[in-house]
Amino acid sequence: MQALDNARDRVAGAVDDARLQARLEGLAQFGAVQPGQPRGGVARQALTEQERLARRWLAAEFAGRPGYAVGIDAAANVYVRRQGSDAGAPPVMTGSHVDTQPLGGWLDGAYGVAAGLEVFAALDAAGVHTRRAIETVMWTNEEGSRFAPGLMGSLSYVCPDRLAEFQDARDAQGVPFGQACAEARADFAAAAREAGWQWFDTPLARPLHAYIEAHIEQGPILEARGLQVGCVTAIQGVRWFRVTVPGRSAHAGTTPASARDDAQAKAIALAHALLEYGRAQDDEALRLTIGRWQCRPDSINTIADQVVFTVDTRHPDARVLDALQARLQALLPPGATMDTLQNKPTVTFDGGLTALARQACRALRLTHQDMLSGAFHDAMPLAGFCPTAMLFAPSIAGISHHPEEHTAIEDLAACTRALAWCLTDLAGQTDAPPANASFTSTR
Ligand code: GLV
Ligand code: MN
Ligand code: MN
Fold first, then answer.
1. Which of 32, 66, 147, 233 has the fewest Cβ atoms within 10 angstroms?
2. How many structural domains compose the chain?
3. Is the pLDDT of residue 429 over 90?
């Protein structure tokens, strides 16, 4: 125990602020809206060229080192693995996603991946070997903004049957997810072959000892309370709907009011009624967002024949979401329809793992509190698969999904030290050298 205590502290102490910052700034160049300025916004949606290049660049930092291997699975999730001494023991996993919103910030998802890699750098610098392998994963399509729903990679990992259902989800240009996924897999494997990286096979649903994800909070709580780390105990439920309101196109100037079937007018009235319902609940915890609005034919002087808009609703209590869903259904005008794009119930994380997160914060003298996550994360599906928890770093002014998203490097590094402490604990220190038995080259 003495040795493990010592290893956890040494690895946490070897986390390097400048190295972490350099990795994050390098990553922010992929899809940078203003090259050279990490805080100018990042446009790096799932499986686009920039996102695929970013993943290869991140993998390359460790892939060529002894004791490391890389892999990509059927859902195009990319793994960087630091081998343990016991090749048969299920690994400990960390990581997050590197896809962004159409115009996102530089830390959402990126931080969790960069932090996982920083723990590798710290383990190497501290000369610590672990019994279990540790893997940093880059999940595919967490955001759900290019292909809906979000969390496709992590959902496919825990439930491989879901992957078939995602294949035909299309982006706005009509590209199917299955095609984008196959291209990403092929070019990652080709890059690995060309670079001579160690490779390991990564079937979906491989058993995991534990999953712990670091992420920025994306909300205002930690900063407002002056705290360094959030120990996340649960993620609130989220439901996404697509509402389609039909009408009939006609000339804007000649069609009298009595003859109009105006999809815009009906959709706007519906949206107002829904938002009014949300306001009337007077419930600070209820989140209701109409984020996408598409109108056809999208012309100034033609009455719209169709409007499609999305509704994102969140709350920790499923009954509140049930009531909101029922109200939306009841408000639909004749002919309008609604489809559910995703429905993720509230999940509670593993008590043992959140206790470990608190223990890490205490050992490292980091100010912290337990908290609920307002955003969903890849840890959500993982929670039903293996012991799972999350660590949050504060977000300045709570801003996220926006170019101004930011966190001080000291706070990012502090949360990474807590992550390093937990991962070292979970993987178990050992004096034995890493085993290479699980490395294969069956590409
Ligand atoms: C993830 O980006 C979310 O919308 O919670
Ligand atoms: Mn995220
Ligand atoms: Mn996000």
1. 66
2. 2
3. no
CATH code for the domain in which residue 318 is found: 3.30.70.360
Give the helix/strand (H/E) hosting 409. Answer: helix 409-427
Ligand 1: does its nearest atom lie under 6 Å from the Cβ of 375? yes
Question: Does residue 353 sit in the same domain as residue 373?
Answer: yes
Ligand 1 atom having least distance to the Cα of 312: 4
> What would the mean pLDDT of 343-353 be, rounded to a whole number?
97
Give a yes or no: residue 323 inside a domain: yes
- Ligand 1 binding pocket includes 106 (Cβ within 6 Å): no
What percent of the chain lies above the pLDDT cut of 70? 98
Q: What is the pLDDT of residues 366-388, one digit of tens each?
A: 999 999 999 999 999 999 999 99
User: From the CA of 233, how far away is ligand 2's center (Å)?
Assistant: 17
Q: Does 442 map to a domain?
A: no
Residue 401 known to bind ligand: yes
- Per-residue burial over 122-151, b if 16 or more Cβ lie within 10 Å, else e, is bbbebebbbbbbbbbbbbbbbbbbbbbbbb
Residues 156 and 255 in one domain: no
Same domain? For 109 and 225 the reply is yes
Q: What are 67-97's pLDDT values in tens digits? A: 999 999 999 999 999 999 999 999 999 999 9
Q: Contact at 8 Å (CB) between 308 and 244?
A: yes
What tens digit of pLDDT does each residue of 294-343 get? 999 999 999 999 999 999 999 999 999 999 999 999 999 999 999 999 99
Indicate whether 388 belongs to any domain: yes
184 Cα–ligand 1 center, Å: 23
214 shares its domain with 244: no
CA atoms within 13 A of residue 337's CA, in its CB half-sphere: 5
Tell how far CA 86 is from the center of its chain.
Answer: 29
How confident is the model at residue 2, as a pLDDT? 61
Are 257 and 373 within one domain? no
**pLDDT, the chain, mean:** 96
CATH number for 387:
3.40.630.10
Residue 440 lies in a domain: no
Ligand 1 pocket check for 378: Cβ under 6 Å: no
Residues 137 and 276 in one domain: no
The reply to whether 203 and 278 lie within a common domain is no
| Model pLDDT, residue 435 | 73
Can you give the residue range of the structural domain that contains 336? 237-344
Q: Counting Cβ atoms within 10 Å, is residue 24 exposed (0-12), middle (13-18) or buried (19+)? A: buried
Q: Taking the C-alpha atoms of 196, 419, 35 and 183 in order, what is their torsion angle to the nearest 10 degrees?
A: 40
Determine if ligand 1 sits within 6 Å of the CB of residue 411: no
Q: Which ligand 1 atom is at minimum distance from the Cα of 401?
A: 2
Q: Ligand 3 centre and the CA of 142: distance in Å?
A: 7
Indicate the pLDDT class of residue 443, thresholds 50, 70 and 90.
very low
129 is in an annotated binding site: no
User: Are 318 and 371 found together in one domain?
Assistant: no
